Amino acid sequence: MVGSFRAELRKLRKRPAVWVVGALVIALLVAFQYLLPYVVYATVPRGMPRGVLNALKQSLLLGYFPGSATSFLAGLGGALALILGVLSVGSEYGWGTVKTILTQRPGRISVFSGKALAVVLTLIVLVVLSFAAALLSSIVLTRVLGESVQMPEGGLLFRGLGASLLIVLAWTSLGGFLAVLFRNTALAVGIGLVYALVVEGIVGVFASLVDWVRNIHDFMLARNASALASVLPQPRTSSAPELSAAHSILVLSGWLVITFAIAVVVFRQRDVT
Amino acid sequence: MSVSGARANHELAPRQTGDDVLVSTSGLTKRYGRVLAVDRLEMSVHRGEVYGFLGPNGAGKTTTLKMLLGLIRPTSGTAVVAGHEPGSPRGLAQVGALVESPAFYPFLSGRDNLIAMAEYSGAPTSRVADVLELVELSTRAGDKYGGYSLGMKQRLGVAAALLKQPELLILDEPTNGLDPKGMAEMRALIRELGQGERTVLLSSHLLNEVEQICDRVGVIHRGRLIAEGAVSEIRGRGALIVRAQPEGQALELVRAMPEVGRAEIVNGALRIEADPASAAEINRELVGAGVMVSELRPVQQSLEEVFLELTSEEEG
Predict the structure, then answer these.
(1) How far apart are CA A211 and CA B304, in angstroms?
(2) Where in chain B is the domain with CATH 3.40.50.300?
(3) A12 touches chain B (CB under 8 A)
(4) Among B67, B71, B84, B119, which would you mutate to test the A interface (most chain A Cβ atoms within 10 Å of its Cβ)?
(5) Cβ(B218)–Cβ(B227) below 8 Å
(6) Which one of A23, A95, A121, B159 is least enclosed by Cβ atoms within 10 Å?
(7) C-alpha span between A5 and B119 (Å, rounded)
(8) pLDDT tens digits, B168-215
């Protein structure tokens, strides 16, 4: 498996699409969590409630950066992580390299495990870089806003990193699972994004009206990713999160384990035609 | 593309295991729904030979090779490849393969692709330079695979198959899509790789290719192995064309000769199945009986003729 891991890392490191997705995650995080809110705050639209304005300002400050970064990774970052998962597995089918790899030597489980480990390492780097980008952005804006530069406590930083990693792992695993299932990139990305951006949204609308739909919604991926992110200290304009951190961690772990396990079984059993 | 010198000879030497039969199948069958792709296949490839797996497109060649490599699971039957179950890491350690068209990562260079494959296979990465030299891709090894011509892609595929110094080399239509020069170069390379102890299992639908390269042939048609043997055996013992007058008397005489098999009149001449070495004896007997012989020449059936005969018999 060590050989597979090294080969997968080589491929991920040298693949332009991986760098593009990584750059997009960081660029969009800085744009949507810092630049855009700052522009809104600085231009102060008429009629904006004072509480909202204050929360907007607080979200830019250094003390809240772990929550800001995790919130982003739970939303748009999750969708990009899903794409990364699809690309890392699905492209092998598109290029026909699955058969090239499997005729080398290592065995299917070893190939898939090596790939999974390499993707996990990539996600760790991505999460750390995202936090670094959020840290730098918040330091700059804290100074610009004339507030005192005060680092959040270390425990909060590690909780944020851990939560973010679990969130992106779950999304990436879903992406890999869809790619194995459809042996394809485009279809897997399409279905994954429809689930993330449309299905969960529609279910969320009905969840507020019907109890049993809410029960289902409480076990959905994006819902729990957002809930876990919202456990971290963030300036709030609404009530406290409805789901506990333990519940969200369990559900996200379930998504991660189940999608990964099914993907491994399908990859191991299915013919490479 | 040529292989020469001490280094090349070293490259050509495979690692060895024990048995005489390197690939054997028993009742190997693959069914896709109602389509029977491979039907109770019984084949055996011996150590050190170049085995031609011959059949028209869609006959079941690639499906069979994929089953031998563990990419496809058989519906029933068994196969043993290099002493192991198909697809097992220990078996694959002795097998190099190029199945269908070569497939590599377009964003990696040829060299990086081979390094990645060496890492997967456990072969030392120092082998990469050797196999690149062997297939004469060293000067273009730094170029992205996506920019390679089809011939270069095929050669990279062969290079990847050789990384492990395999005892068995499985090549599926390796000259597909190549221009005539590329085909000639690839055939020369395969011939050289097949020298010595290495075993080559070459799938092809090109009869002249198999005839040029292979020691033994298996003919597959509609998923069934309809013939297997040395190229000379498959071709049969040969035939003689005899122009003689009177034709009818000549036909009766040769049919009575013990050394003659089937005899018939084709295009105004006698076509008789007989060992070409018996031509002088047949001529003596015909002339002795008062028949005038104006032409007597041996003909050898080409593999193509045999193949068409075999497949038409199957269809009939």
Answers:
(1) 74
(2) 5-234
(3) no
(4) B119
(5) yes
(6) A23
(7) 9
(8) 999 998 888 788 888 888 888 888 888 878 899 999 888 778 888 888
Number of Cβ within a 10 Å radius of residue B19: 11
Q: Where in chain B is the domain with CATH 3.30.70.100?
A: 237-300
Give the Å distances, CA to CA, from B119 to A109, B101, B122. 16, 21, 5
What class does CATH assign to B5-234?
Answer: alpha beta
- In words, the CATH class of domain B237-300 is alpha beta
Domain map of chain A by residue range? 2-269
- Report how far residue B115's alpha carbon sits from residue B121's, in angstroms, rounded to the nearest whole number: 10
Question: What's the confidence (pLDDT) of residue B2?
Answer: 39
| H helices, E strands: number in chain A | 14, 0
Rg of chain A over Cα atoms, rounded to whole angstroms, equals 20
Note if the pTM is more than 0.90.
no
Where do the DSSP E strands lie in chain B?
21-32, 35-41, 44-46, 50-54, 76-81, 95-98, 168-172, 199-204, 216-221, 224-230, 239-245, 263-266, 269-273, 292-299
As to burial, measured by CB atoms within 10 angstroms (0-12 exposed, 13-18 middle, 19+ buried), residue B99 is buried
* Nearest chain A residue to B89, by CA: A105
pLDDT tops 60 at residue B43: yes
Measure the CA angle with vertex A88, ends A83 and A91; round to 5°.
95
ipTM of the complex: 0.89
Indicate the SS3 state at residue B149: coil
